[in-house]
Amino acid sequence: MDLFIVLVICLSCLISLFLWNQSYAKGKLPPGPTPLPIIGNLLQIGTSNTSKSLTKLAQDYGPVFTVYIGMKPTVVLHGYEAVKEALVDHSEVFSGRGSFPVIDRIFQGAGIVFSNGETWKQTRRFSLMVLRNMGMGKKTIEERIQEEALCLVEALKKTNASPCDPALLLGSAPCNVICSIIFQNRFEYSDNKLLTLVDYFHENLRIASTSWIQLYNIFPSLIHYLPGSHNELFQNIAKQKKFILEQVEEHQESLDFNNPRDFIDYFLIKMEKEKHNKQSEFTMENLIITVWDVFSAGTETISTTLRYGLLFLIKYPEVAAKAQAEIERVLGRHRSPSMQDRSHMPYMDALVHEIQRYTDIVPNSLPHAVTQDITFRNYLIPKGTEIMTSLTSVLHDAKEFPSPEQFDPSHFLDKSGNFKKSDYFMPFSAGKRVCVGEALARMELFLFLTNILQNFTLKPLVDPKDIDTTPIASGVGSIPPWYQLCFIPA
């Protein structure tokens, strides 16, 4: 009985604190649906398709509104104008990273993606410098991607036009590009280390996009001690961190301070230079987490986009035929594509953009937070308030993209068939938190897809009309359904 009374008192205190906090915040934050104690607006936003729920709420509350994720207020930005005004026009203030408890528990604020403050600023600045030194956005990295694209083509030829699931091969190619930057090494596509790494990345995104992980992020203190898929995520990342540590230890044994070979070497040299600085952000733990960030972002997002891309191409064979006709006209059958060719291939360029727009890989981006109090559209948003940016609302804006729910490369073509840029194209987010590897990703998607279409006819196993492109999960990421196809050599 005593325990019951204590629980009732604790629950009453939590509800009272919640109601007081709600009342205090109401005069500052944008309006939104009335939250319930403890669970907040969980019933309104759900966990299976948050983007769809936010679009419905935006119809009632406008482009800037507040929802409660559990007991935590979160300001939602919906539509291009609101997202651009926050992330671009007020980029510094909206550059904070909101909490993501299931990852925060493992990474403890280290790395690039989930860090804040000086850790984020210094690690991001350093990583960008190293990636540029390693050739990102330049001819040197383009040549690596071209070489890897040829390896991918050879691996696809080995399927002998038989039905195959392309997921592992489409993950191995971008993973090898990142490996060449981080480890100055690549793996054969049959190497178990590579296949295991790629499989972990696929599984991590799948698990992170489930309703269970969204519940974990709302109630971390409760869910953490229950059995569930979060434990599998922890185990996967622990194994990946162990693999990275082994690579780092090998690098330490052969490190030449005057001749850095790759990302790890650059970081180790920076660590040595700052070893007497007790406040240094360049530690072994930060190195491992930063490498994991670059690895994960550079492998899984490209792999997932490629998987979606081939799925759309077998569902819409007329789109594939148009792209292949342009490839034949510009490149022929034997000259490998380069980034210089892109300006002469408007349809292929538009196709790649439409794949990214339509797939909407990270529907609501990762959570942001404001770094100081800010008056935004006549609302006072206090420092530390979490921000959710609906990238779906930008990428599927009907004013910019007629028929946004249809897959159509002409969304990026003008009336003359020339490529048409769009400010609404934000698959990499925008502002200070824009994806570090955007330039690398753009190169990979164009070169990999062009090489595949140049060398193969893509044959589905079922009638294209029966192909379902609906994501199997849509949480942190949008996960494509599993499928098979045949790669028929051209």
How would you sum up this structure in a few lines?
The chain has 18 helices and 11 strands. The chain is of the alpha+beta class and 490 residues long. It starts with a helix and ends with a strand.
Question: How would you characterize this protein structure?
Answer:
Keywords: Endoplasmic reticulum, Heme, Iron, Membrane, Metal-binding, Microsome, Monooxygenase, Oxidoreductase, Signal. The chain is an alpha+beta fold and 490 residues long. It has one domain (111-365, 397-489): Cytochrome p450 (Orthogonal Bundle), CATH 1.10.630. The chain is 53% helix and 9% strand. Strand 9 (473-474) and strand 10 form a beta hairpin. It is globular. The chain starts with a helix and ends with a strand. 43% of the residues are buried.
| Largest sheet strand order | 1-2-7-4-3
CATH topology: Cytochrome p450
The tally of strands reads 11
Q: Structural class, from secondary structure content? A: alpha+beta
Q: Quick one: CATH superfamily?
A: Cytochrome P450
Major sheet: size, sense and barrel closure? 5 strands, mixed
Strand content: 5-15%
Shape: globular
Total domains: 1
Assembly category: single chain
Spans of at least 5 consecutive residues whose pLDDT stays below 50 are 4-9, 22-26
In CATH, the architecture is Orthogonal Bundle
Helix content: 40-55%
In sequence order, what are the helices and strands, one letter per element? HHHEEHEHHHHHHHHHHHHEEEEHHEEEE
The CATH class label is: Mainly Alpha
